[in-house]
User: What shape does this take?
Amino acid sequence: MSGQMSGKAVIRVDGSVLATENQATLTMQGVNRSPERHGGETYFTEEETAPLMECSVLITKDTNIAKLNDMTNVTVFFEADTGQQFVMRNAFTTEPLALDSSGKTPLKMSAESVDQI
Assistant: This one.
């Protein structure tokens, strides 16, 4: 069977499309499991993980770096070119953005949850 693989994404914050590079990453909430050996048996511990979205924002004359830095309690829609859609609720920027001459800046966001829609 053949079919399209995801190669780019459209990211919307509170309905407005972000000007981003084609590639972006969305990691859903879940758990990290760490294996441990005790008495010849393998056990594991779990640690909850928060959702994370990473992309590169293109810096144009219309890019408001301060607004992107200050985002809290926003809704983010992540749509892959395969048609898969996800929503991040109560999302927020996790790290300050840098303005430099490369023409783009990394944006990292987390949220209360990520759900496929």
Notes: The mean pLDDT is 91. The longest helix spans residues 65-69. The radius of gyration is 17 Å.
